[in-house]
Write a structure and sequence with these properties.
By secondary structure, the chain is of the alpha+beta class. Helix content is 20%, strand content 34%.
């Protein structure tokens, strides 16, 4: 069985290396959230997708908005696309709203990288 919580390694075409992991979290005080954590040279960037009225994490790693953008955060190609978009925008540290990045990332991926959305029990769409 694969351990989804382990740090995985990603190397971009220019040789830049990242470690990354994906987490699905539930809290008592707020909506569930998907978080893609990217580590590079001791610097952490968290791409956070909090459930909203227009977008939700559906199962661990899958995020979808109401506009048809769907990405599986467990796919290395999706992680590469997020890393490249963060670099393009200069957002290389701290917490970043994943919903702001999702349209650009989804457009950069091939249709094969997209997944079919579905909502698991206990993770409602919306706050």
């Amino acid at each position: 069985m694969r351990d989804e919580r382990r740090l995985r390694r990603l190397v971009l075409p220019d040789g830049t290396a990242y470690r990354w992991t994906v987490r699905h979290r539930h809290t008592e005080s707020g909506p569930c959230a998907e978080t893609l954590s990217l580590y590079r040279d001791g610097i952490l960037t968290r791409v956070v997708f909090r459930a909203t009225a227009t977008g939700a994490g559906t199962h661990s790693g899958l995020v979808a908005d109401g506009l048809g953008h769907v990405v599986n955060l467990h796919e290395p190609g999706a992680v590469r696309a997020f890393a490249e978009e963060l670099r393009r925008r200069g957002q290389l540290a701290g917490e970043v709203d994943g919903w702001a990045l999702l349209p650009a990332v989804a457009r950069s991926l091939s249709p094969a990288a997209a997944a079919t959305p579905g909502v698991p029990p206990g993770c409602p769409r919306g706050p």
